[in-house]
């Protein structure tokens, strides 16, 4: 009886300390949570789960992964909650290495007889998110189809996957077939419409969203501002922006970006300063990226320089936006100086999008020598991702073709022949129906007739004196 009491007191002590870890984690105080954890002589899987949850909700995913290693080293059995938290940590880190670790833990849990995956909706939803961000839509669909129970969160994860992987039509189809909606699914379908850029479709979806959300939910209003801007209806975006009773930084960024993508650079800059000076909202790095991109699209180089210099601590995305602004007007030396400045700062590694921005500028100028120089720099970056190198090779080959240097273009093209490339997808709307197509696509039932009409148009153009510019015969 005494032993049982002692065991019960130990169990109660563990439960109390687990609760304390949870409390400190929710208060964003991981130092005290770690202190309690380190002082515990006895721990159970709930203890580790409490720490894992603390690390993930406090954006300390790398520490969560270190703790996962410790759990394995101590040969403690993972629970379904453990797998869920570790997979979420992998998603939070968000690079190719962490995604591979997430897949590894997925395989491991499939071999665990104590885990009934088909009945665990939270774990399955996390896996949907993982594979969606890995770009594996087929695996996402497989997991989704194997779910015994699906809630609105699972449907949202599937829609998010489709949006991330440029499959917005599937996202819209899921939305239309759902019996129950949520704020998240409304936002996701609006984002899908933004990808397509078809105003009529967006207006149709807009009418299906409850008025209380349209007029009073800021997250949906922010998405609508973004979507109408991307559909080219700046006035409608402005009207929604003006109707918002309480704006946050995302609201301003959506409108600034909306002005930018439609060529209203000055309006974007003016709104940025209004946000700062009148709304008293301190712009974050993303806000600077939005306004710099707006300057880039409108050729406002001096304004971009002034904005860039006004920000003391700049991340890699701010640098990339400024480099893109300079590259678009062929100021390659200045752009290169910024790359050097960024890489010379302690802890900074080469950032591929900076070089891609430079390379795009060289392509636009049809400067094959500059393009080759930038391409060689890019290829020398350690551990450069293969997809980025493929994209850079395509840009280089296109630059050679545009300059008329078909011999060098063919060499690059031959090197790419064995590499699997993701085909670009486009959409068009005909009589209210949306069609998806790729280069050389023949999936449409009227493909023969479409190509015959295209050939006919080409012949008519030739008869009117137009000639094919082979410099534009670029690879895709």
TrEMBL record:
<feature type="repeat" description="PPR">
    <location>
        <begin position="284"/>
        <end position="318"/>
    </location>
</feature>
<dbReference type="InterPro" id="IPR011990">
    <property type="entry name" value="TPR-like_helical_dom_sf"/>
</dbReference>
<dbReference type="InterPro" id="IPR046960">
    <property type="entry name" value="PPR_At4g14850-like_plant"/>
</dbReference>
<feature type="repeat" description="PPR">
    <location>
        <begin position="248"/>
        <end position="278"/>
    </location>
</feature>
<feature type="repeat" description="PPR">
    <location>
        <begin position="13"/>
        <end position="47"/>
    </location>
</feature>
<dbReference type="GO" id="GO:0003723">
    <property type="term" value="F:RNA binding"/>
</dbReference>
<dbReference type="InterPro" id="IPR002885">
    <property type="entry name" value="PPR_rpt"/>
</dbReference>
<protein>
    <recommendedName>
        <fullName>Pentatricopeptide repeat-containing protein</fullName>
    </recommendedName>
</protein>
<dbReference type="Pfam" id="PF13041">
    <property type="entry name" value="PPR_2"/>
</dbReference>
<dbReference type="Pfam" id="PF01535">
    <property type="entry name" value="PPR"/>
</dbReference>
<keyword id="KW-0677">Repeat</keyword>
<dbReference type="GO" id="GO:0048731">
    <property type="term" value="P:system development"/>
</dbReference>
<dbReference type="GO" id="GO:0009451">
    <property type="term" value="P:RNA modification"/>
</dbReference>
């Amino acid at each position: 009886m005494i032993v049982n009491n002692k065991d019960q007191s130990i169990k109660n002590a563990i439960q109390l300390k687990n609760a304390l870890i949870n409390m400190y984690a929710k208060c964003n105080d991981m130092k005290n949570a770690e202190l309690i954890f380190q002082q515990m002589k006895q721990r159970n899987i709930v203890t580790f789960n409490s720490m894992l949850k603390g690390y993930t909700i406090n954006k300390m995913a790398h520490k969560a992964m270190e703790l996962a290693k410790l759990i394995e080293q101590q040969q403690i059995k993972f629970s379904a909650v453990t797998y869920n938290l570790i997979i979420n940590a992998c998603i939070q880190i968000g690079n190719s290495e962490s995604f591979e670790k997430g897949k590894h833990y997925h395989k491991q849990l499939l071999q665990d007889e104590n885990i009934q995956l088909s009945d665990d909706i939270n774990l399955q939803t996390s896996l949907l998110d993982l594979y969606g961000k890995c770009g594996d839509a087929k695996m996402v669909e497989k997991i989704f189809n194997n779910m015994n129970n699906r809630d609105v969160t699972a449907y949202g994860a599937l829609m998010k996957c489709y949006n991330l992987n440029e499959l917005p039509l599937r996202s819209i189809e899921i939305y239309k077939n759902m019996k129950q909606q949520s704020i998240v699914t409304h936002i996701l379908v609006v984002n899908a419409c933004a990808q397509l850029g078809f105003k009529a479709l967006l207006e149709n979806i807009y009418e299906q969203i409850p008025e209380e959300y349209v007029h009073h939910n800021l997250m949906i209003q922010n998405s609508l501002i973004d979507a109408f801007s991307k559909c080219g209806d700046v006035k409608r975006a402005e009207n929604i922006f003006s109707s918002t009773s309480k704006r946050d930084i995302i609201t301003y960024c959506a409108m600034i970006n909306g002005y930018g993508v439609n060529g209203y650079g000055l309006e974007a800059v003016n709104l940025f300063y209004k946000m700062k000076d009148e709304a008293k909202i301190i712009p974050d790095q993303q806000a600077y990226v939005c306004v710099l991109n707006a300057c880039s699209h409108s050729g406002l180089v001096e304004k971009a320089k002034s904005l860039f210099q006004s920000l003391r601590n700049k991340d890699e995305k701010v640098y990339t936006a400024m480099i893109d602004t300079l590259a678009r007007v062929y100021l390659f030396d200045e752009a290169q100086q910024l790359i050097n400045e960024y890489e010379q700062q302690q802890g900074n590694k080469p950032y591929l999008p900076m070089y891609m921005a430079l390379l795009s500028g060289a392509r636009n100028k049809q400067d094959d020598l500059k393009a080759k120089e930038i391409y060689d720099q890019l290829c020398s970056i350690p551990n450069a991702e293969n997809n980025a190198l493929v994209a850079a090779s395509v840009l280089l080959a296109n630059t050679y073709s545009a300059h008329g240097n078909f011999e060098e273009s063919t060499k690059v093209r031959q090197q790419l022949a064995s590499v699997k490339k993701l085909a670009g997808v486009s959409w068009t709307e005909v009589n209210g129906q949306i069609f998806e197509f790729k280069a050389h696509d023949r999936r449409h039932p009227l493909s023969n007739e479409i190509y015959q009409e295209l050939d006919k148009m080409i012949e008519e153009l030739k008869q009117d004196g137009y000639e094919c510019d082979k410099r534009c015969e670029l690879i895709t």
